[in-house]
């Protein structure tokens, strides 16, 4: 399998990563939380509750006054947004005519009231655009800015089944200071770049947070009838020293992978599965069904990618790769992070860190900065916030 030319995207708003609809103008017919349900929308006609027909989406009442409806969403992982899917599945005579999407990047954990207060710099990333009913309405986003929150506005009212926000995670480098973290985690920017088999499910679930909920919540390959084995290639969140791996076969009782092996690489781009860039990290090791396994990794060179081989096929629930980011990688993360922050957030961080306001404004306006600087380093000593 060849390496993809485009960076792998993640659903930044996914409930599985901690995304949340934190407020909405109205949810009379369908709860706002339905927007982020991981499963595809479903609908059974003729089922009624106390508020009318039961819908699988966010649906507001018929608006009899001027204005429009809106929902505030906190991203599960902050990042640069590439595309948005406003899914109106099953809403045929009751979908909004148009939508608009705005985004902002802020520090900390603001309340809905704080997010809508004067002074918050909301940027329009999808202009007011027509929607089709019972459809996946796809919008491309070109703004190269790291956002933490979205505001979905619908005109004038109606129902939206799901919201998906695809992009690249830009982790806060302050989280990597003096910590051992799961460098494969999607929430930190890790991504499954390639895999041998997705017959039953995608390998992307390997790096989701939390434990699997059932056997359908893991990576399972079809039964292999010939030679060879299955594999998944993971781009780590940053280059690091790897210390421990957790291989979880929970719920796979009769179809777990029998063995696994690990290979690592330190490369600018994702190596092909047969590339000589891979070096052995852990030899073929026996696995037990329905078990969380922890293995200490031997000291090795720094790694940016991991190849996870399973023998011969089967199911794996989760994969955790605990490690510490190298100083050079953390520097690179910090530069990318600072360059992608919304202007208001970047300038606010600088002034809060003691940089005079005129200097902070000058530094912010001169981005992207070509190299790391003591000014950015000073920001990384502040308390960790999203």
Describe the structure.
The two termini are 35 Å apart. The chain contains five helices and 22 strands. The protein is flat. The model is unreliable at 1-5 (pLDDT under 50). It folds into two domains: 10-169, Jelly Rolls (Sandwich); 174-325, Jelly Rolls, CATH 2.60.120. The protein has 386 residues and is mainly β. Strands 1, 2, 6, 7, 8, 9, 10 and 12 form an eight-stranded antiparallel beta sheet that branches. Strands 13, 14, 16, 17, 18, 19, 20 and 22 form an eight-stranded antiparallel beta sheet that branches.
Attribute tags:
mainly beta, eight-stranded antiparallel β-sheet, disordered N terminus, 386 residues, 22 strands, 2 domains, 5 helices, Jelly Rolls, flat
CATH architecture of the largest domain: Sandwich
- Strand tally: 22
Task: Give the proportion of residues in helices.
Answer: 10-25%
Q: If helices are DSSP runs of H or I spanning 4 or more residues, what is the number of helices?
A: 5
As residue ranges, the low-confidence spans are 1-5
Encode the helix/strand succession as letters. Answer: EEEEEEEHEEEEEEEEEEEEEEEHHHH
- The figure for the number of domains is 2
Which overall shape is indicated by the principal axes computed on the Cα atoms? flat
Mind telling me the CATH class of the largest domain? Mainly Beta
Q: What is the average of the pLDDT values? A: 93
The name of the CATH topology of the largest domain is Jelly Rolls
The end-to-end distance, rounded to whole angstroms, is 35 Å
Rg result: 23 Å
Report the biggest beta sheet as strand number plus sense, adding barrel if it closes: 8 strands, antiparallel
CATH superfamily of the largest domain: Galactose-binding domain-like
Quaternary status: single chain
Question: What structural category characterises the helix and strand content?
Answer: mainly beta
Strand content: 35-45%
